[in-house]
Backbone:
């Protein structure tokens, strides 16, 4: 019983630490999310997308979206992931995107535990959660607004499809990851 209390306490401390960091970082605009958002907006707004490769024009349009930092105009490889939420302001879209990413991380963890037959009420579950929640790349993904939780979720759904011999659960997430 004392061991369980210690493990659950450590897991709660890890969760609290992550929550404090999320509150601190989520409202900030970072290059990771800005890269997705800016090109998604430009894909919708521009009639002639080739103009976005002009540095001055590109950054002028970014400032009109509320993104104040001048950024290099890289290839828009991840614009499609944010396309459904570009009708929101950059800040609101970022918060929504990160909340969705965290939800997918939680679903990924639950699915992984289910795949490996780890009970959600076991000491092993709480110990693993403590480690996962304190793992710095988790915080970095949230702070920078990256899409790795989405890719993780798609990978785990594919893995689940392989273990259950479900072709669709294997193929569709794999194809989406390649996009």
Residues:
């Amino acid at each position: 019983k004392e061991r369980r209390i210690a493990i659950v306490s450590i897991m709660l401390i890890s969760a609290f630490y992550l929550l404090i960091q999320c509150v601190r970082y989520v409202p900030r605009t970072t290059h990771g999310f800005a890269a997705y958002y800016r090109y998604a907006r430009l894909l919708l707004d521009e009639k002639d997308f080739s103009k976005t490769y002009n540095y001055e024009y590109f950054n002028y349009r970014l400032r009109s979206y509320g993104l104040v930092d001048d950024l290099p105009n890289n290839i828009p490889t991840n614009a499609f992931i944010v396309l459904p939420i570009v009708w929101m302001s950059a800040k609101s879209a970022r918060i929504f995107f990160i909340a969705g990413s965290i939800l997918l991380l939680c679903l990924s963890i639950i699915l992984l535990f289910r795949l490996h037959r780890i009970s959600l009420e076991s000491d092993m579950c709480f110990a693993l959660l403590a480690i996962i929640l304190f793992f710095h790349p988790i915080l970095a993904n949230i702070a920078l607004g990256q899409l790795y939780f989405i890719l993780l979720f798609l990978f785990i759904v594919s893995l689940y499809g392989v273990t259950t011999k479900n072709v669709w659960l294997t193929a569709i997430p794999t194809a989406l990851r390649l996009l």
